[in-house]
Input
Amino acid sequence: MQPAFRAPIARAAVWMAGWLTLMVVIAVAGREAARELSVFQIMLLRSTMGVAMLWPLVHAAGGLTAVRTGRLPQHALRNVIHYAAQYGWFVALTLIPLAQVVSIEFTMPIWSAALAVLFLGERMSGLKWFAVLLGLVGVAVIVRPRAGELDAGQLIALVAALGFAISIVLVKSLTRTDASVAISFWMLIVQSAIGLVPALVTWQWPSPTAWGWVVVVAFCGTYSHYCFAQAMQHADATVVVPMDFLRVPLTALVGWLAYSERLDLYTALGVGLILAGNVLNLVRLPAAPQGPSRDPLKP
Output
């Protein structure tokens, strides 16, 4: 019974590995693209190009019939919130260091775990709360914020984290009725519609270099969310979200490789705490609940 219970967790971990890789890459690509283009333009190109990139998965799943949904209002709500949070995240990339953006984003598990318990009926054991706490302490050790110094970029990143948390809870609700490919498809369609006018107002033709970065942003943005939705289908949000803590040490590693950012003892300690939280969350999970819980967000 126990190995069978752990099998879905293992599958979720594999999908989250894809999410982590793509999200680390998109952080670098987004910063580079924003050197030349407006955030609105980057987001529009990401969504419109993403539709074409996602189409092979849509076609393999059965075409447009595979993306039919009876929960279009929930898709729209989720993507309005996600678009706003994503805009704030890209803006924060241009205002504060990359490590700060990603680390502040990891206040998100606090919000998403609480929201999942309140609105999705998920169970949060003391061990899981301790895993989240270890991860957040690890993030704080890496960032080492100074008291009383929260600038505009940090505040924007913090609000974006709250928006992402709400989006995660809505995604988990949607995975109970809709396939991952449908969730990703409607994300691209809704966000393309939202971003069309502001992108056209700020439009300038990208250089070849900017086009390259935008293509990377579009690919990572499209398939990262597909990976995340797949992970959510295999495990609760309270299991999946703490896995995302690994993005902090991975981002620190990329910063060292790409930008020669120094890795010090505090960073190593923070990484250790984050890994410890993930081990507790994944290896020593409590027994699975016996019956399916009702989804309060489902009509």
Notes: The chain has a mean pLDDT of 82. DSSP finds twelve helices and no strands in the chain. The two ends are 33 Å apart (CA to CA). Residues 41 and 149 are 31 Å apart (CA to CA).
